[in-house]
Amino acid sequence: MQDRFIRSITQLPTPLADALIPLLHQGFAGHIDAQQLAELVKSSNMTESEVLLALLPIAAALAKPPISEFYVGAIAKGKSGDIYMGANLELPGEALFHSVHAEQSAISHAWLSGESQIVDMIVNASPCGHCRQFMNELVEGGQIKIHLPSQDSHLLSYYLPYAFGPKDLNVQSPLLVKQETEFALDSSDPMVIEALDHAGLSYAPYTQSYAAVVLETADGATYCGRYAENAAFNPSMLPMQMALSNLTRHNRDFGEIRRAVLVESSQGKISLVGAAMDALHAVAAIELEHIVVDPI
Fold first, then answer.
1. What pTM value is reported for the model?
2. Binding-site residue ranges for substrate
3. Do 163 and 29 fall into the same domain?
4. Does residue 46 fall inside a structural domain?
5. With 191 labelled, which of 93, 161, 225, 260 sits at a CA distance of 20 to 30 A?
6. Which of the residues 94, 103, 137, 140 is marked catalytic?
7. Could you tell me if residue 110 is inside a domain?
8. What gap in Å lies between CA 215 and CA 289, rounded to an integer?
9. 66 lies in a domain?
10. What are the pLDDT digits (tens) for 10-43?
11. How many whole angstroms separate alpha carbon 19 and alpha carbon 28?
């Protein structure tokens, strides 16, 4: 079991902890598939809702909050039945807008894993306005059921009445609907090709600034992040922050980063290179490789 879960596992009921420990191997990064979840429910003799709420300390153990020192865990349950953990991330010494909220982390985890819809969000603190707006960007966002400890569950629309979302800006295919933009680039560099693929899957209906980041560690492992825009603009999730959150979930240290690539569209109304460089330089002393590509 990974060291980061040693304290949190003691907060779980013993039958659930015993069933969960084999899953918390060195490769565990917060994904539990539907069959594994069903086995946890059966072994613990708890309801699924009880299990998901009980797992929040495990999700919170993925957090990296050097500024607030407030650990928040979130679990997104997909339409597939799989669950995806996420946690808050703060960059030391950097402006607070660089932070990743736990709900964003969990949702981006699901998105990068190919999930097409979130049906439940379990979180250990009431979602802030930023996260409510971010969730509202998703497929059937208002119908996502929010679960909090010791509180009744409610739909997101309860927490975000009179919501402003993609349809208000004439966007008919919200976040998590698979969309692909093709770009022209001739490269044999696997890392650049990976970044290009993720840029094509990014979500940028308001600026057309399709973009992605790939980080590589010394052992050759790569961690990606895509741009995810929001109708309210500010809750947009930048690709560098998503990549850093992805790397952290996989229990890797920022000091292990050896290479970073940003690929973005030449036709976008904005550029993400400045923000990406600021975030990267807050955690790693390496230069960002910036590649601009033309849509086909």
1. 0.96
2. 88-90
3. yes
4. yes
5. 93
6. 103
7. yes
8. 10
9. yes
10. 999 999 999 999 999 999 999 999 999 999 999 9
11. 15
